[in-house]
Amino acid sequence: MNSTRDNRMSQMIQKIFFFGIVLLQLSVLTISHAQFGTGTPAEIRALENGPPPTRDLSGVWTRLRPEGEFYSNSTWTPNPPEVTSWGQEKFSESRNSNAGGYSLSDTNDPVLTRCYPPGVPRVYFHPYPFEIVYTDRQMIILYEYDHTVRRIFTDGREHPEDPIPLWLGHSIGQWDNDTTFTITTVGIDERTWIDRSGYQHSDQLNVTEIFRRIDNMNLEVEIIMEDPIALSEPWVAEKLYYRLAPAHWELSEISCSGDYLDFSQFENFLESDNQ
Questions:
Q1: φ and ψ at 258, to 5 degrees?
Q2: Rounded to whole angstroms, how far apart are CA atoms 150 and 132?
C-alpha cells in the first residue's frame, strides 16, 4: 500500500512540476512577445507623434479599440449584411464558434477545423499585428498570424481577367494622394469566409481596402466587400484603427498548428489519469 501511495505521490509531483514548467514557458513567451517579438533590438527609441510621412505605411501596426467606436472580433458591422438567397443559404450552412453559436467540437469553420488561411478580408480579425514593408514593385504585408505573407503589386499591372483562386487573392494597390493607399483584391479562394461569423462568398468577391495615414502614429482602414452572387449590396465595414509600434518592435510567431506547444504531453497526462 505504501509503495502504491508513494508512486501516486511521485506522479503527482511530476505533473505539478511539468505544468509549472509550461506556465513558466508561457509567461516568458508572453513577456518577450509584448516587448520585442522574437528579435533582440539594437536600439530602443520611443515613438514620437507628428505629421504623417509622405507615401509611407511601413512598420508594425497593432489594432486599437477606440472608445465609442464599433469593435468586433467576428464581424464587420453592428447589423448583418444584405445578402442574396445564395448568400443566405451559404450562411445557414456555417456553424461558427467565434460568435458563440457552436462549440469548437461542432464548428465547421475552415480556419479552426482545417487550419486554412483566413483569406481577405477576414485576416484582419486575428488579434495579432502586421508589418508593412516595400520593394521596388510591391508592398508586402507580413501578418503575425500563421506566417501569412501578402503581396500587393504597385508596378502598374492590372488584375488578370481570369485570376487563379488564391487564399489572399490577387491584389494591386496605388497611392491616391500622399497619405491614402487603396488596394483592390480579386480571385479570393471560395473556401474562405468573409468574416468569422460565417458569411461566405463566391469567386466574384471584390475587396477594396483604403489605408489612410492620419499622422505619424495612427492609421485607419476602410474595407468594402462586393459580390453580386453573395451580397445584394456592398458590405461596407466599420473603420479599423491601428497604432504604429515603436521601431524596435518585431513580429513574433503565431502558428495555426500550435506547434509552439506540445499538447500531446497534456493528452498523455489526461489518459494516465483515466486509467
A1: 70, 30
A2: 10
Nearest one of 34, 47, 74 to 251, comparing CA atoms: 34
For residues 143 and 221, membership in a common domain is answered with yes
Q: What is the pLDDT of residues 66-85, one digit of tens each?
A: 999 999 989 999 999 999 99
Answer whether 255's CB lies under 8 Å from 148's CB.
no
Name the percent of the chain lying above pLDDT 90.
Answer: 60
The answer, yes or no, to whether the previous bond of 41 is cis (omega within 30 of 0) is no
Contact by Cβ (8 Å): 174, 154: yes
Residue 272 DSSP SS3? helix
Q: Are residues 79 and 31 in the same domain?
A: no
Cα 242 to Cα 217: distance, rounded to the nearest angstrom: 8
Q: Minimal CA–CA distance to 154: which of 169, 173, 180?
A: 173
| Of 55-59, 173-177, 225-229, 255-259, minimum mean pLDDT range | 255-259
pLDDT tens digits, residue range 189-212? 999 999 999 999 999 999 999 999
User: Are 86 and 176 contained in the same domain?
Assistant: yes
Greatest Cα pair distance, the chain, in angstroms, is 81
Q: What angle do CA 128, 68, 97 make, to 5 degrees?
A: 45
**Which structural domain, as residue segments, surrounds residue 25?**
2-38+260-273
The answer to whether the CB of 94 falls within 8 A of the CB of 198 is yes
